[in-house]
Each structure stands twice: as C-alpha cells, then as structure tokens.
C-alpha cells in the first residue's frame, strides 16, 4: 500500500481528535468500551456525515431532477454536486461516467446484466480466487445466460494471486476480467495495474471491485485505465445502501439499461421508449438522494485527513497488531502478502473462530468470524473460517492491546 517513508505522523494526525468525530466509539458494549474492529464489513460514520444526513431531511428533502420548485432544485444541486465530488475523487474523465447505485453488489450486477447481450458461447470470463461472493455469483449467472465459461485465477498460501497463471488464462476468448482491488477476507492488495494491462492486450474489459480498497487507497481510474470500478459508501464512512459504478463512457454507452422506470427514459410511448443519456440511463426510479449526498460528504471527510496519512497510520496499526498477535502461541495468520491493507485474518489452533468471536464480544470487541463472504478462500486453506480484525484510522494501539488480551483469555477458556 502507498506508504510515505519518513512521514512524521504525530505532527499530522492525532487519533484522539479523530475519535471525537465518531459518536459510536464512545458507547459501551456488554459494559465495556466498544472496540470496533469490523471495519472491513462496514465503517463507522463521523458526525460531519451524520450532520449532512440530518440537515438533508431537516431542510432539503424533495424528489430530484423533476420539480421546478425550490426544494427539488436544491436537493438536485446537492445530489449532482456530490456526483462531481465522486468524479474528482476517482479522477473520472467525465461526470456522466459516475453512476449512483445502491452499492458494490448492485454495481456489479448492473455490469453483469449489461454484458448478457455482448457475450456468446465460447467467450471466457476470468475472476480471481480471492473474490467476495458478490463478485462470483453474478458472473456464474451471466455464464448460465450466455454460455460463456468462468475461469479462476488461483491463489497461493500467502493469499496472493498467481500472476503467471493469470497470464496463461488470458486468450482471444477472454472478454471480461473481474478482480477485487483488495481482498476483504485477507487484505491482500492485488496487482491490478498489471491485471488491467494484460487484459487489454487481448481486448478484454476489466471491472475492479474497489469496496475494500477505497477505505485505504485513493484510486485514479484514468491512470489505472480500469473499464469499470465499483464501490460502496458504507465502507468509506458513508451510509449504507448507496455506492457507485464508474464506467468508461464507451462501455456505458454500449451497455443496455439495467432497470426500467422513471428517470431513465427520454420519451415513452406504448410503441417505443427511448432512453435518457448517461448517467440517467442507469438510474431508474427515485435514488437514495440523501445517501448520495452523504457519500460525497464522507469522501470530503476522508480527503481532509488525507489518504497518505490514513494509509501510513493504518500500516502502523497493521504492523503492531501482526507482531502482537503472532506472539500468541498457536495463533496463525492467513494472508501474509507484503501488500496488505490493515486486515488481520487469524485462527487459534484447535479452536473454532465463532467461539473466539463470542468471547471477544463479551469483552466489547467487535470482530468478524466466519467465511467473510469468501468461502472459496476458506476451502483453499481447508478451514471453516477465520477471526478477522480490520483496523481503521480511528482505531488505536491500546485497542489492539485489548484485542490481544481478549484472544489470550479466549484461548485459556477454550483450550
Ligand atoms: C463489502 C464488499 C462487497 C459488497 O458490498 P455491498 O455494499 O454489500 O454491496 C463486495 N466486494 C468486497 C470486496 C467487499 O468488501
């Protein structure tokens, strides 16, 4: 991950000040101060974003894009300004390349559905062994609809993709490649620059699932030359139920609309309907207006701290947490790539991850246990699941100490 060597973090970043922005971090769970280490599932929301949500419903709530009245115009302006913020954040060339969706899953399904008419028997789709279920199932369904075949880039024990094998999978039959930027189960940062370049050599389009990278990395979709890049607001301090699809203009023009309804049409008669221009062609119905506005506010919040600062601090947490946890005998970490975000997936020898998670919860510590919507990865390691602690920039080393103590206690109680 991007890391500024020699960066004086203490001068730029005071975690105690940052924590004051997050009201939820002050609540207790089971009588203990909350230690929130489930950031890879959803991030917490700062008061700056909560304020935007309250302000929207207190002052601007109206349907957008259709009313001549003042409220509707103000709500439309806020929503479109947010689209602009997202465009700037991801460095998309055109504003209309940013499509609001309900999240990563919706974005992926929109693209998968769109490719139904573009694929035929004999075509191939490549996905990676490190995918979230939301990035596997839609492609299996697309293959069923079109007769295309799904190929899988294998992984190694470190939790990295086998890039040689990927290069060998590519052929003139490859039409699509789908890879996550960062694995949610293991935190591995995948070499997507290489993956995209090689796919383009055979004329395949590439969709990058950025749900897990966007909390830590600021992607530049033009520099990456990604054909599609998708993410969810709730992983970057925004609300649930809203996200985005970035698509290159040429691809978005080629894909048919996903859903029919209001907003996405130019003209409707019973004989024929013509579709609206981008981005509205893909935005049928009343969207999550407040969520879209709050998404922009969440990116503002994170950019004000700065992604280099965030990445450097989280890397400190990752190194500290890895060392502290590995000092526990019988503890094994899954996903040991040099290129990782602040996610630690681990197990205690002979103990079910669920039992450890339950004891940690009694201590106020929120971790994820299970297969993390990535069952093929667990099958690869021949384990039922892991305990996953995922750190954000508002977490502290003291919280990691609490986790380590909790894991030791769980080990004592369960072995
Ligand atoms: C969270 C996540 C998703 C799913 O996001 P939704 O907001 O539930 O649609 C997909 N891929 C990855 C890598 C994720 O981390």
Question: Which CATH top level class of the largest domain fits?
Answer: Alpha Beta
Count of helix runs: 15
Tally of strands: 17
Rg over alpha carbons: 22 Å
Q: Determine the structural class based on helices, strands and strand pairing.
A: alpha/beta
Would you give the CATH topology of the largest domain?
A: Aspartate Aminotransferase, domain 2
Ligand set: pyridoxal-5'-phosphate
The largest sheet, given as strand count, sense and whether it forms a barrel, is: 7 strands, mixed
The residue ranges in which pLDDT falls below 50 over 5 or more consecutive positions are: none
Domains, number: 2
Average predicted local confidence, pLDDT? 94
Helical content (DSSP H or I, runs of 4+): 25-40%
By CATH, the architecture of the largest domain is named 3-Layer(aba) Sandwich
CATH superfamily of the largest domain: Type I PLP-dependent aspartate aminotransferase-like (Major domain)
Percentage beta strand: 15-25%
Overall, the morphology is: globular
Distance between the termini: 36 Å
Q: Which sequence of strands runs across the widest sheet? A: 4-10-9-8-7-5-6
What's a concise summary of this model?
This protein is of the alpha/beta class and 415 residues long.
What does this structure look like?
With 415 residues, this protein is of the alpha/beta class. Helix content is 40%, strand content 17%. It folds into two domains: 9-46 and 306-414, Aspartate Aminotransferase, domain 1; 50-303, 3-Layer(aba) Sandwich (Aspartate Aminotransferase, domain 2), CATH 3.40.640.10. The strands form five sheets. It has a seven-stranded mixed beta sheet, with helices on both faces. A four-stranded antiparallel beta sheet has the order 13-14-17-16, with helices on one face. It is globular. Bound molecules: pyridoxal-5'-phosphate. It is an enzyme of class 2 (transferase).
